[in-house]
Amino acid sequence: MPRESLCIKVPKNQGEKALRLVRNMSIADPDLRIRNDDVSICIPMVRKPNEEENDTIEAQIPGFTLQRLIFSEKTPQKKMLKSVLEDRIEPSLLLKTPRALDIVGDIAIVEIPPELKQQEKLIGRAILENHQKVKTVFAKAGAVSGKYRLRELIFIAGEQKTVTLHREFGCTYEVDVAKAYFSPRLSQEHRRIASLTQKGEKIADLFAGIGPFAILISKTNPDVKVYAVDINPEAIKLLEANVLLNRVENRVFPILGDTAKIVEEKLFGIADRVIMNLPENAIEFVEAACKTIKPTGGIVHFYGFVRQPGTLEQMERQFSEKVEGAGRKVDAFLLVKTIRETAPYESQVVLDAKIV
Question: Which CATH architecture has domain 3-71?
Answer without folding.
Answer: 2-Layer Sandwich (3.30)
